[in-house]
Amino acid sequence: MARLMSMAVIVVVLAAMMHYSAAQTEHVVGDSTGWTVPQGGAATYTSWASGKQFVVGDTLVFNFATNAHDVAELSKESFDACDFSSTIGSIITTGPANITLATAGNHYYVCTIGSHCTSGQKLAISVSATPGASPPSSSTAPPPPSQGGDSSSSTVFASVFVSLVSLVMSFFL
Description:
This protein starts with a helix and ends with a helix. The protein has 2 domains: 1-25 and 153-173; 26-152, Sandwich (Immunoglobulin-like). Helix 1 packs antiparallel against helix 4 (154-172). It has 4 helices and 8 strands, in the order H-E-H-E-E-E-H-E-E-E-E-H. The protein has helices spanning 2-22, 43-50, 76-81, 154-172; strands spanning 26-28, 54-55, 59-62, 71-74, 88-92, 97-100, 105-110, 122-128. It is α/β, with parallel strands linked by helices. Strands 2-8-7-4-5 form a 5-stranded mixed beta sheet. The protein has a 3-stranded mixed beta sheet with strand order 1-3-6, with no helix packed on it. Mean pLDDT is 80; it is low at 136-153.
């Protein structure tokens, strides 16, 4: 009986861990391009974001060299104008920068160095409260998600989870 109870506890704990991990994704902004002045202008980061689903709890990883770039969150109006006079929170100057998405809605990020923002080093994303949920309505609909290379640890975690469950089950069977 104690053996069965132990197995049940282990399965519940592993299931909770999988749910928690699967709900959080690490998005490397720009993938291999990183956080830099893009050759393709602002369309580079717009295109990158269009293939992603962002959920509260996810993390954005801005890969950049310290002193070459930074990251600031702005309002939509400030984002559109590349106006850095009223940032939301502190400007992050040390790379790489990890930002956990804490609220649903639209979020706007820029580099405040030189003319980087006006040259296209800016990112606008819509964040949903839960996976599969629509973000709060905005004036324009986001493009449909595309298939492809999201920088995510969820697949690796799922593989490890299945291996652990198999290992645990082998002890009890």
